Amino acid sequence: MKIDFSEAHCLHRDVSLHLECGWGNIKVLVPRRWTVVVEGVSVGTGRFNNKASAQGDPGKPVLHVEGSVSAGDIKIRYVD
Question: Can you give the pTM of this predicted structure?
């Protein structure tokens, strides 16, 4: 599954994203100007990787991520 915020026109300062990944893959794509805050992701035997960890621009959306990954893979990265 892919969640792509690259063309999102977001009117809110804060966006909450709850992710549940069992046996699959979730890829989250965010614009470079956004801030991503991981507020709690529990990991079983799977993997969680946030490559969108730089501070975003003031006034741009802040994506708050929480959830869990069992045996799958969650990746958060910037849009190329």
Answer: 0.93
